[in-house]
TrEMBL record:
UniProt cross-references to Pfam families, sorted A to Z: Glyoxalase (PF00903)
Domain of life: Bacteria
GO terms assigned for molecular function: metal ion binding; methylmalonyl-CoA epimerase activity
Keyword Transferase among record annotations: no
Name of the protein: VOC family protein
InterPro entries noted in UniProt: Glyas_Bleomycin-R_OHBP_Dase, Glyas_Fos-R_dOase_dom, MMCE/EMCE_epimerase, VOC_core
Domain VOC: 4-122
Source organism per UniProt: Amycolatopsis balhimycina DSM 5908
Length: 142
């Protein structure tokens, strides 16, 4: 059986710098590297294709699409504050402040080519509340 990944392609201007960033800072591992043209890095079920200027993926991109977009990969972390402190200590600059919402907290950073990466910590759900809600729904169903 073949490993199944969700793949995203990021066009980057420096494949070795992108490999260094994703492996050192964000815990990806290299599956395959043909630097400086291309690299394939993975983290869990995410396969990130890093395409440099000489790669076929970059050459197929329309000429007016040279800037990084607003799309981003979304990485779930257990402790957002600890990740922010670790990355800031490594010199990584953030693009936003922490934003909180009902689903959790997030912050954006950029890879060396300017592609966005979102670090997201889900909101903690109160297990007592979940258990109570489950009991209530079970009682109603009986």
């Amino acid at each position: 059986m073949t490993d199944q990944y969700a793949s995203v392609r990021y066009v980057v201007d420096d494949v070795p710098a992108a490999i260094e960033f994703y492996t050192t800072q964000l815990g990806f591992t290299v599956r395959m590297s043909a630097a400086p043209a291309f690299a394939d890095v993975v983290r869990g079920p995410l396969r990130l294709l890093l395409s440099g200027p000489a790669s076929s993926g970059a050459r197929a991109t329309p000429a007016g699409s040279s800037a990084a977009g607003r799309n981003r990969i979304h990485l779930v972390v257990a402790d957002l504050d600890a990740e922010i402190a670790r990355l800031a200590g490594a010199g990584v600059a953030f693009r936003t402040d922490v934003v909180s919402g009902p689903g959790g907290r997030q912050i954006l950073l950029a890879d060396p080519a300017g592609n966005l990466v979102e670090l997201f910590q889900p909101a903690h759900r109160d297990s007592a509340h979940r258990d109570s809600a489950h009991r209530d729904s079970t009682h109603r169903d009986s």
